[in-house]
Design a protein that fits this description.
The chain has 14 helices and 15 strands. The protein has about 500 residues and is of the alpha/beta class. The radius of gyration is 21 Å and the shape is globular. It binds 6-O-phosphono-beta-D-glucopyranose (BG6). 6-O-phosphono-beta-D-glucopyranose (BG6) binds next to loops.
Length: about 500
């Protein structure tokens, strides 16, 4: 058998893209609740409605370079927000978990929405209804032998912390996060043992979605926010271990593969520098417990001094993670002189288009071998257990006359990636312990806010304008996954 006994097979979702019920059960607002839909194919970005300090109301797109200081995001009652209902796990959790079990899951990755537990992020007391909701969900998972793998923070900074404290730029957010972590580790002791601290920590500080206003225009703030995210993660690890030594707590990085565009040493060096700043920096800090030399030199060159509290450096060391998890969708190429070379899309790896590879409908480069390369490189560097906690193909699905979604393109994508994981385990000997493909049930896209960009093996009837009765249907890929999972990855034939 190539995949070890007990290998974790499942799927992954995030509260802000799947749960809906955006004000139900005492939940407060998160920044993600203020983000509109967009249109990825036509390049129309998601927007925030914001109010400026002088009372002027305006909008910014979520990839904007100009988020004015003092801006406050808000929900405009006349605007449609896809995440407010999303695909409504909040009211379908029993039915959905039964479907996951039917597919053969023994793990399910989901995130806790911080604002369900602390509606403003920093309230005195937690919201019991929110705590109970997740407790019910975790108990339901265990009924089927499914281990919850819980992300503490997946793109959902409480709006109050973002508007009033500039999110992770402020130490106040770290303190509030610490209290939230302590609360959920305590409540779910014995129910959850697999945890992830901050989803795609390398993307986090770059988006307003995470409460960093003035982000791209103020590098000092970005670096401070990064420090706070690392401290937040290290606190989560230490508190989690203290409350239950059986907790197994990992980091989560968007880790696409990247290649030098050519074998010109200048291109190779450009890729080394880019990979340091886009990926390795985050793993180095969270696996080793200190900032690597290349980062310290960069901060020195830029004259940026991070504000630390006494004990922070020790905390970073103590809070190193138990395992390395990452999302993997695509790869890109890097050149020393990228001018005149066509660019590629992707969630993190927006580099240059690789002439050897094809792209998805959303322009993301499909590269299964890149996953094996990553597994090797990550394992060589850290020698920690690894999980692939996101992977998948965002595609347009159509319902055929027989009522079925024949998503052979998705089956092919998943097949090709599992084959490479298998080689990494069987031939290269890496310690891979789990696989949770992204959005195994249709949900709202984080990047574009679309419903039509679907990753699921389970279809949910909901479109980009909010039409649909939310009923669930098994796609063709559902049955493929079922066969793969139930055979522990041995039966991969398409
Ligand atoms: C990752 C995120 O970046 O990629 C998910 O952790 C996200 O939240 C996923 O949904 C796929 O990206 P997108 O933009 O296609 O939803």
């Amino acid at each position: 058998m190539s995949f070890p006994k007990g290998f974790l097979w499942g799927g992954a979702t995030a509260a802000n893209q799947y749960e809906g019920g955006y004000l139900s059960g005492g939940k407060g607002l998160a920044v993600a609740d203020t983000l509109t839909g967009g249109d990825g194919i036509h390049g129309i970005h998601r927007k925030f409605y914001i109010e400026l300090p002088d009372g002027t109301k305006t909008t910014v797109n979520n990839r904007t370079e100009e988020v004015p200081a003092g801006a406050k995001a808000y929900v405009d009652p006349d605007v449609y927000y896809p995440s407010h209902v999303a695909t409504d796990f909040y009211h379908h959790w029993k039915e959905d978990i039964a479907l996951f079990a039917e597919m053969g899951f023994n793990v399910y990755r989901l995130s806790i929405n911080w604002t369900r537990i602390f509606p403003n992020g920093d309230d005195e007391e937690p919201n019991e209804e929110g705590l109970q909701f997740y407790e019910d969900v975790f108990r339901e998972c265990h009924k089927y032998g499914i281990e919850p793998l819980v992300t503490l923070y997946h793109f959902d900074c409480p709006l109050h912390l973002a508007n009033e404290y500039d999110g992770w730029v402020s130490r106040h957010t770290v303190d509030a996060f610490e209290k939230y972590c302590r609360t959920v580790f305590t409540r779910y002791k014995g129910l959850v043992k697999y945890w992830l601290t901050i989803n795609e920590i390398n993307i986090n500080a770059n988006f307003m979605m995470n409460g960093v206003h003035e982000h791209l225009t103020n590098k000092k703030n970005v670096e401070q926010a990064r420090w706070h995210l690392f401290i937040g993660s290290a606190k989560a690890v230490t508190i989690g271990h203290e409350i239950d030594p059986d907790n197994f707590i990992g980091l989560m990085i968007a880790h696409g593969a990247s290649y030098p565009y050519t074998c010109d040493p200048d291109d190779v060096m450009a890729e080394v520098i880019s990979a340091h700043s886009r990926k390795w920096f985050y793993g180095d800090v969270q696996c080793r417990g200190y900032y690597p030399e290349y980062k310290l030199k960069e901060l020195e060159r830029e004259g940026i001094e991070i504000v630390k509290e006494a004990g922070d450096d020790e905390l970073l060391k103590k809070g190193v993670v138990d395992f390395y998890s990452f999302s993997y969708y695509s790869s890109s190429a890097v050149a020393a002189h990228p001018e005149n070379i066509e660019g590629a899309e992707g969630n993190q790896e927006r580099g240059l288009k690789n002439p050897y590879l094809k792209q998805s409908e959303w322009g993301w480069t499909v590269d299964p071998v890149g996953l094996r390369i990553n597994l090797n490189q990550i394992y060589d560097r850290y020698h920690l257990p690894m999980m692939v906690v996101e992977n998948g193909l965002g595609a347009l699905d159509t319902i055929a006359e027989d009522g079925m979604i024949h998503d052979d393109y998705r089956i092919q994508y998943i097949h090709d990636h599992i084959v490479e994981m298998k080689k990494a385990v069987e031939i290269d000997g890496v310690n891979l312990i789990g696989y949770t493909p992204w959005g195994h049930i249709d949900l709202v896209s984080a990047g574009t806010g679309e419903m039509r960009k679907r990753y699921g093996f389970i279809y949910v009837d909901m479109d980009d304008d909010g039409n649909g009765d939310l009923h669930r249907e098994r796609k063709k890929s559902f049955y493929y996954i079922q066969r793969v999972y139930k055979s522990n990855g041995e039966d991969l034939d398409i």
